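Milestone 3.1: sequence recovery, worked example.
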């Protein structure tokens, strides 16, 4: 039998992968490889060493804020495109969005980079990792302070090039119909992307070589892992971090279950909720060592939700809802959509119930386990309170799924309303029960309310257990 490979205190491979993701340009906030993935990898890479060296814990907090800013870029891109809408007079909005995000990101990323390299300096000074503070050898050797400057220059260049080409979209005429400067945008965007990509490759080579030199120091890694394993607060602190991640993923899943439809496009598709619920199920699987069925259910829910989103997009682009009543092709297409919708909502109910089972088991473990006695009144009350909250939350999740299906079903019978109340020409088709969307949103809002209430209570209970 081969010996089990010992884990490192720092996952240098995750940090290297994050650097590669961050090296890509992002014109118009369009990030092909979202930065939030890179920041999540860095947080995972530092999860052990942050318990041993406090400076790395500060880095994790900085990276968490950057991850949040990067996550906001994704909906901001769609909102920006929605406002722009191909209207030449609204092109300036692109420059405004890109400039604001570039400034905000610079304000956070520059001090974060300083804290990041300072933590590695502490690793070298206090724990004997010479590679963290020395130039090292090889063709890509560079002093750590020079690598820090190179990193700062790269991220400043990246932020500048993410908004400077967009300045050419600012209208120079009162009519906003455009100018010769606007025609420079494609050239400026391409040149800016090439500059960021070339500089990013150079930075990646030196930075990754620096990481690999530290990774080669096995003695320091072993000392850090020994300190990590001997720290008595590690198991409970890790559990607290996992449960924090669990509640965040669960709430994100509930939020993504809202239907936010503009111009026939749902900007919060349900397969995004499936991804968040899958992540929550994965955390529960690691915490309880059971619950593989919820991962299968969320995977199926995600696949069916993606099929539903594509079919609904095709239907809305091809037909008006009024065509369902008199057009056979539209009716058949919508009936297919209803079958997929029924499967999707049934899978959502299954996901909610399976998550409920696992969360009830988690509540039992966090409030004294199976050996809890009746005389332990405080723990019993806490267990009952948390159980009631998650059961109520699950009920509204199931009601949301049922209401969503009946809302889709309501479009079979439509009525016509004037598109403009001041004119008699033109109309829009809406369901006969055009008020039913209020029921869907009411169930969704109540689901979100109880989810936040339960998650905050669960996290507080776990935090108290850690302090004890």
């Amino acid at each position: 039998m081969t010996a089990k490979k010992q884990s490192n205190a720092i996952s240098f491979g995750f940090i290297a992968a994050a650097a590669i993701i961050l090296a890509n340009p992002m014109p118009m906030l369009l990030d092909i490889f979202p930065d939030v993935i890179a920041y999540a990898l860095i947080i995972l890479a530092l999860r052990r060493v942050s318990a041993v060296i406090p400076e790395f814990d500060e880095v994790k907090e900085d990276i968490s804020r950057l991850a949040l800013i990067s996550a906001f870029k994704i909906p901001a891109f769609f909102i920006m495109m929605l406002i722009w809408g191909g209207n030449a007079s609204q092109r300036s909005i692109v420059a405004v969005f890109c400039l604001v995000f570039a400034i905000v990101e610079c304000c956070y990323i520059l001090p974060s980079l300083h804290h990041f390299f300072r933590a590695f300096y502490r690793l070298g000074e206090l724990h004997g990792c010479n590679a963290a503070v020395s130039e090292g050898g090889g063709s890509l050797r560079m002093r750590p302070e020079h690598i820090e400057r190179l990193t700062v220059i790269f991220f400043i260049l990246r932020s500048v090039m993410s908004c400077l080409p967009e300045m050419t979209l600012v209208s120079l005429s009162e009519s906003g119909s455009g100018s010769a400067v606007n025609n420079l945008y494609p050239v400026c965007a391409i040149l800016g992307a090439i500059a960021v990509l070339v500089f990013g490759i150079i930075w990646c080579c030196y930075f990754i070589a620096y990481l690999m030199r530290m990774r080669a120091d096995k003695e320091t890694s072993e000392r850090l892992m020994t300190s990590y394993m001997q720290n008595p607060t590690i198991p409970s602190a890790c559990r607290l971090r996992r449960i924090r991640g669990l509640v965040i993923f669960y709430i994100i899943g509930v939020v993504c279950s809202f239907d936010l439809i503009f111009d026939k496009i749902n900007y919060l598709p349900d397969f995004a909720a499936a991804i968040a619920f899958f992540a929550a199920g994965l955390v529960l699987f690691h915490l309880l060592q059971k619950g593989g069925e919820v991962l299968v259910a969320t995977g199926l829910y995600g696949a069916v939700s993606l099929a539903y989103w594509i079919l609904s997009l095709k239907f809305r682009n091809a037909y008006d809802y009024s065509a369902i009543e008199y057009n056979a092709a539209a009716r058949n297409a919508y009936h297919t959509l209803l079958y997929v919708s029924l499967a999707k909502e049934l899978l959502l109910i299954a996901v909610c119930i399976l998550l409920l089972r696992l969360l009830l088991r988690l509540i039992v473990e966090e409030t004294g386990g199976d050996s809890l006695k009746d005389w332990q009144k405080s723990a019993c009350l806490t267990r009952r309170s948390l159980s009631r909250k998650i059961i109520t939350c699950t009920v509204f999740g199931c009601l949301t799924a049922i209401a969503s299906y009946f809302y889709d079903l309501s479009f079979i019978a439509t009525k016509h309303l004037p598109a403009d109340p001041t004119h008699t020409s033109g109309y829009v088709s809406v369901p006969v029960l055009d008020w039913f969307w209020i029921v869907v949103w009411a169930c969704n809002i109540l689901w979100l309310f109880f989810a936040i209430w339960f998650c905050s209570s669960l996290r507080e209970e776990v935090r108290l257990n850690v302090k004890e």
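The CA atoms of residues 117 and 414 lie 62 Å apart. The radius of gyration is 26 Å.
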